Amino acid sequence: MMTHTVQSEPGEIFDIELDENLKRANDLIAEENRRLLQRHSVRAIDVMGSVGAGKTSLIEHLVRLLKARYRIAAFKGDLTSKIDSERMESLGIQTVQINTGRECHLDANL
Q1: pLDDT tens per residue, range 31-60
Q2: What is the 3 state secondary structure string of 32-99?
């Protein structure tokens, strides 16, 4: 079997179609996660955006405003570092660092 690497031309953008089974598997795990959170009365909020958009700053501000009224924890997904996780810990909330190694987002299984 021959394997080759597809490389883009400057300015070229590739659209990658996900295999329906892979997407379906993620959806099933996500639904299981939702049921688990509901069973324990946990509200989960996913903050997404580009690198440098201010996600961590927004979360820090919200934690300062809300931590006296709510128990707050953070799952921080990052390629390799703990910088954002340490920022959350400095606010006195429980933090779980997830180093994805290659992805900049967390799939349901993570």
Answers
A1: 999 999 999 999 999 888 887 889 889 999
A2: HHHHHHHHCCCCCCCCCCCCCCCHHHHHHHHHHHHCCCCCCEEEEEECCCCHHHHHHHCCCCEEEEEE
**CA 4, CA 87: separation in Å to the nearest integer?**
42
> Cα separations (Å) of 84 from 13, 37, 70, 90?
30, 23, 21, 10
Q: Show me where the domains of the chain are located.
A: 72-110
pTM of structure: 0.66
Q: Report the Cα–Cα distance between both ends of the chain, in Å, rounded.
A: 32
Instruction: Give the DSSP H/E element, type plus range, for residue 78.
Output: strand 73-78
Q: Which residue has the tokens 């580009």?
A: 50
